[in-house]
Structures are given as C-alpha cells and as structure tokens.
Amino acid sequence: MAVAPNMRSSWPRVWAGIAGAAGAAVLLLVLVFGLHRDPGAIPSPLIGRQAPEFVLPLFDGGTLATPALRGRVVVVNFWASWCVPACYEEAPHLQRIWDRYRDRGLTVVGVNIQDQDRLARDFIARFGLTFPNGVDRLGTISIDYGVYGVPETFLVDRKGRIVHKYAGAVTEEMLVSEIEPLLADADGASP
Amino acid sequence: MAHRHNDRAWRTGVALLIAVTLLAAGIAAAKDPEARAQAIAAQLRCPVCQNESVADSPSELAAQMRTLIRAKVAAGETDQQIVDYFVSKYGEWILLEPPRRGPLWIVWLAPAVALLGGAYLALSYVFRTARASGR
C-alpha cells in the first residue's frame, strides 16, 4: 500500500519533465532556424510594386524624369564613390549592359547617394560611364526605394513594376538573365 | 467643523487634479514639430546600423531620414502616416518595436510566460523542500 502515494506524486513530475523537454526542443529549433538566417538581409517589400517615380538632376546637366522611361526596361543603380570595392566592380558591368541594350528598350540610371560631387564625377570619368547619372542630394529617392546601403540595383519592367532587387555588386551575367525575358515580353511593350 | 475642513481639502484636491490634467493636455497639444519628428525617428531602426534608432544614429542615411521626417511633419502628415511610409519602403523590419498583433504577440508575451513558469517552478521547489524538512 505504500506504493500508491508514491505513484501519485511521480506522475505529474513525469509530465512536467516531458513538457519541459518539448519546450526546450521547440526553443532549440527556433534558435537553429535563426542561425541559418542572414541578420543583414532585409527583404524588400517593393518587389512587384510600382517603382517610385523621381526627377533626377544629372551630372552632365539637365534632369531625368522617370515617367519618361515608361515602356522601357529600367535598371536603377544606387552607388557611391566611397563604396569599395563593390561599386567599382559592378560599374563596367552596368556600362556593358547599357551599351548592349540601350537600342533594345533598356535604360540604366545611376543614382549617386551620400557622396561628394567631385569624387562622384571622378568615378564616372574613371569608368567612362555614359548612361544617365545623377545625384540624390537629400536621400529622398534612396529612402523611397528602401535603400539601406550601396550598391543596390533595382530592375523595373516595361510597366514600371519592380521585378528584382540586387543588394551588392551586380554582374553583366546576372542582369542579362533577368533582362532578356523582360525585353522579350511583348505584352509589356504595349502599356 | 471637521466635516467642513474635509470638504475644503476634497475640493482643493479636485481643483488641483483638474489643473494638472489641463496642464498635461496643454503640453501634449503644444508638442512642437521637432519633438514629434524626434519621437517618430526614435521608433525607426537605422538601416545601416546595428540596433540603433534613426534618432540616435550619426550615419548620413539616418540624418537624411530625420530631414525627411521633419519635412513630412511640416507637410501636415500624421505620425502614423509617416511611420507607415517607412514600413511600406523597408518593411516592418524598420520598426524597433515589433507590432502587437498576430504571431508577433509571442515576442511580447514570451518573457511574461517564462517569468510566471519560472516563478511556479521556484515556488513549487521551495514548498516541496519546506514540506520535506518540516516532516
């Protein structure tokens, strides 16, 4: 008869042990899941949305208003001369994309942010960039695009929708694989 | 006499309470645009920093964001509209405090649940040892 009270008191302890172990397992899974995520990666809520419009004062005079680009595929590149090495790596690639596709309905737009005028001009001269390039002096364009660093590049389709965002240096190959289908999209050609 | 004295104290108390309430309301209403902009910036996470608010960060991006917030306050936008603008551009990531809704309640409730659970375990242990030593 001495067994009965013992049994009674040990069962809740077993259940508490199971509950504790289950709780610890769940916590461990959450932490392991967290380890595999990049804390620096910020998913952009802008993908699939209409690209914010802007008017950009260009380095070589005049301005560029994005509504004028509707119907074209647009590569919007945010950069700075102090962005080493990523901006230096991708600049020739962006120029090649411009040379390759400008007559097929694509425009590359450079948006210089958080920079100094002279250093930005030196950068453009150094790489012989010929696509439209201008300054976002107040940062309103970059904030409108949810930019958090340089370089960041947005790919906009013929209808003005953001289809892709690249954080970090882009290459010609990366862009080509995305641009070709957008240019081939005859549906988008007639807005 | 005692009753009358009590009555006067009561009235003075109520008058004081009303005065303080009015004063607080006045301060809140007169909250200047700069203080509003500062409060909004304090709610936003600086995108180029580690766990620093837009209000606290010396980075150029945060400075530009503060300028933009001031411009939006001056343009007559509400605090909520301005915060919503930044959320629409950067996602909820930009909010230093996760919103209190849906599954995000977990992060708000988990500490309290853990505290209560811990207290229960500690108390049950204390009672058990007290009972054992008392026997």
TrEMBL record, chain B:
Question: What's one GO-annotated cellular component?
Answer: plasma membrane
**UniProt GO molecular function:** metal ion binding
Q: Give a yes or no for keyword Iron in this entry.
A: yes
Mark the transmembrane ranges.
105-127
Keyword Transmembrane listed? The answer is yes
Q: Which domain of life is it from?
A: Bacteria
Q: Report the residue ranges that make up the CcmH/CycL/Ccl2/NrfF N-terminal domain in this protein.
A: 28-131
Q: Which GO terms describe its biological process?
A: cytochrome complex assembly
Q: Could you tell me which InterPro entries the record lists for this protein? A: C-type_cytochrome_biogenesis, CcmH/CycL/Ccl2/NrfF_N, CcmH/CycL/NrfF/Ccl2_sf
Q: Which Pfam family, any one of them, does this sequence belong to?
A: CcmH
- Give the record's keywords alphabetically: Cytochrome c-type biogenesis, Heme, Iron, Membrane, Metal-binding, Signal, Transmembrane, Transmembrane helix
Query: Which family, according to UniProt?
Result: Belongs to the CcmH/CycL/Ccl2/NrfF family.
Describe its function: Possible subunit of a heme lyase.
- What is the name listed in the Swiss-Prot or TrEMBL entry for this protein? Cytochrome c-type biogenesis protein
